[in-house]
């Protein structure tokens, strides 16, 4: 999701005795292997303790008290039928969910919000095979957790499949969540209505009862009923259209690949499209309201180019045969990466060469690059839970940089990426910031994770890691991660493991030795071997909030280094300053250059203090080469004066991004009370000679 917030502009007693374990049902069902680290109780049944349960809307006990769903019933496939009425602004729908039971249970817990369920039945696999009618299920609702419980007449048998069928209805939403109505006005002044979905993170449950958590991946077969004046779109290509009595049409779509509920999408509208094909044969279509179809040409060109780039970069073909991008008149986020049907704000997709600016072009290109990256990061490989939302959002933000630089270098996004990091540093240096990865349980807490920390800081620490590992090793690690966890879920540690050991199968010789980095020097290999523990290093960046300050003091050929937490709004003389510094320690991959050499030196600072010896005397030292590191640098003693002197004598001896980084850091330090304003203004004096654009 390209989220607007990431743009520029009392404990209860556990109900069950839980044990954790891996289980795989291959022995019983050879075609189905579900291996996952779920919490599995010995059985699911009503406890005799009435105080252990919340109360359902009808006053009865609700048999589940946790916000997270139990993992005893696992969805495999949804058959979903939806009929929206764009006149009465409501919809009727039905679904049949194929589920697999791992442990005996007397109930099935799903998510449902603001849906009126009119009927619910259960069939065993045997009942379904012999066309026996389903058994009626009692439905209990617990709106506080947005959950329903389906009470079964007899305990469900472990390792068997069942079919849960439900009929339900609701009004089309008036907001921008779930299945809602959107409107646009034609050039002739007519207001027209469309029905559109937006499910991330927890709104699929507003459109159909479901297991609305990322870990519960399933396949979806979708049917949409509509009037002839409309079209229907969904994640997959349309298989057929059936004509019904009364002039209605019913579109049937191919079954989806295995995916999470938040990626399901369907739209009923009267839009027009422009289409083209990628080099691998994927049909890409850009949809917009009829009067704006002429503004879709650039989006099509960019999408084709970017999709081709990603297939090569990730070494994985886009797995669907089509990709639709549609401009929605009323849309909350900047865009949403629904697999095969990406939804956008009009301003994030449409481009008019006559009236749109160069910054509009960069914006549209960035958002398209972001959402297309999600087709791999997020869709193909999904985070296990929303606490690691940065695994997809930070990556998609970072891939904007890689993809736009490769496909549209003239847009100079590489220069702009510095702003991505500088903006989040301003917020991350406040004590009110948060870690990139942190617990999030309620829908509100989950929604709060879609912020600049997940997006921008996530992207910036990935860029720092890429600079540390080297581009080739980083890319190979990403490819390994995506291939290993395709159609599955992953967590932080899975990514670090892949990046620590980025040898692909094709890299191994017959002797089992990886030669994936033939161009790396022996010095670099030694550096990586001695220092590069990726997981150990990166957890210091994802599990604690804030940004480090590196304090540098040069004494002849010796550099004394010290790290502390960089804070705005709290000063060293304040009584709370020391407490806010405790327990903060980062493993910082330092880079630095000197006046005497163009060589980029590297060192990992793992302790509060350290000392480095320079090979020769130098008039200045500049840390954080090209501003690739996520840290602020303060030069004590004459350090700042030496750099200011160099800038005034010949600023080109310092790289353009280093000059930008110096100006950024010096004003950050003024705000934190570590430098005087006149020192910062001295730093800017050379700008009269500056010609570089970053």
UniProtKB/TrEMBL annotation:
Native source organism of the sequence: Homo sapiens (Human)
Domain Aminopeptidase N-like N-terminal: 75-263
Protein family per UniProt: Belongs to the peptidase M1 family.
GO function terms (MF aspect): aminopeptidase activity; metallopeptidase activity; zinc ion binding
SUPFAM superfamilies reported for this sequence: Leukotriene A4 hydrolase N-terminal domain, Metalloproteases ('zincins'), catalytic domain
Protein name: Endoplasmic reticulum aminopeptidase 2
Residues flagged as site, Transition state stabilizer: 455
Domain Peptidase M1 membrane alanine aminopeptidase: 298-502
GO biological process: proteolysis
Cofactor binding: number and manner: Binds 1 zinc ion per subunit.
Active site (UniProt): 371 (proton acceptor)
Keywords of this entry: Hydrolase, Metal-binding, Metalloprotease, Protease, Zinc
Ligand binding (Zn(2+)): 370, 374, 393
Cofactor(s) it depends on: Zn(2+)
Domain ERAP1-like C-terminal: 620-692
